[in-house]
Amino acid sequence: MCKGRAAELWLGPVALLFLFLGSDNIFTRLSVFFSEVAVFSFGGAYAVLAYVAQQAVDTYHWLRPGEMLAGLGMAETTPGPLIMVVQYVGFLAGYRTPGTLPPLLTATLAGLLVTWVTFTPCFLWVFLGAPYVEALRGVRALGAALSAVTAAVVGVILNLAVWFGVHVIFRETEAWQGFGLKLSIPVLSSLDVFAALLAIAAALAIFRFKVGVIQTLLPCSLAGVVLQLAFGVAQ
């Protein structure tokens, strides 16, 4: 009963959006994309956000790279799960594609829709898998598969770090495609010297001098605010 209800609560709104608004409507596209994210992603928020960021920025153009960086920073510094940054993505996507509705109303509805289709499928997987979790713990083949998934997740998180790092330190990037890959190549002339110096200082503090994350984050954040106020308006 719970399994069927969870599936209905998740797929029902998606089907209705397809039926009444069509496949090209922003609400339909958001519901399908974030349903796919919820169903097929593994590895936690950092692994998921690597895919969300690249698709939202490079494929759908719902956000600019700097806006995605701001959203992740906001999610990291506010209470609640990091994955809630998807609501921010949905909000901006709706605001930029309002259709016949007022932009703020479309954005609010889009943010709520994204949150719904991201989290509702999780309950379905819990209802489906919970009765078998203990029995599956002893299956060696499954353990080997999960080990492979863990290794892949490490690579996905590294991809996220590189993607965000490139867009933080360089103001401009160029898309490159080849050999089945799609990469953001930084434009060297667009180097943000202040961001690069802060990144180097933070890396030295954490890895060389073993300073704690909080003790590193606070002064770097303060330095970023000061630099933005001092030089941001002029740039």
The low-confidence parts are none
What value does the Rg take, in angstroms?
20 Å
How large is the count of helical segments? 10
Q: What would the principal axes of the Cα set say about the shape?
A: globular
Mean pLDDT reading: 86
Elements, N to C (H/E): HHHHHHHHEEHH
Describe the largest sheet. Answer: 2 strands, antiparallel
Taking strands numbered 1, 2, ... along the chain, how are they ordered across the largest sheet? 1-2
Tell me the structural class.
mainly alpha
Question: How much of the sequence is in beta strands?
Answer: 5-15%
Helical coverage, percent range: over 70%
Q: Terminal Cα separation, in Å? A: 59 Å
- Annotation, overall tally of beta strands: 2
**Total discrete domains:** 2
Question: Would you kindly provide a written description of the structure presented here, covering whatever features stand out?
Answer:
The chain is mainly α and 235 residues long. The protein folds into two domains: 2-166, no CATH class; 192-235. 73% of the residues lie in helices and 5% in strands. The protein has helices spanning 2-21, 26-40, 45-59, 65-77, 85-96, 103-129, 133-136, 140-169, 193-208, 213-232, and strands spanning 173-178, 181-186. A two-stranded antiparallel sheet has the order 1-2. The protein is globular, with a radius of gyration of 20 Å. 22% of the residues are buried. The mean pLDDT is 86.
Keywords, please?
mainly alpha; 2 domains; two-stranded antiparallel sheet
Question: Would you spell out the secondary-structure blueprint of this structure?
Answer:
Layout: H1 2-21, H2 26-40, H3 45-59, H4 65-77, H5 85-96, H6 103-129, H7 133-136, H8 140-169, E1 173-178, E2 181-186, H9 193-208, H10 213-232
Helix pairs in contact: 1-2, 1-6, 2-5, 2-6, 3-8, 5-6, 9-10
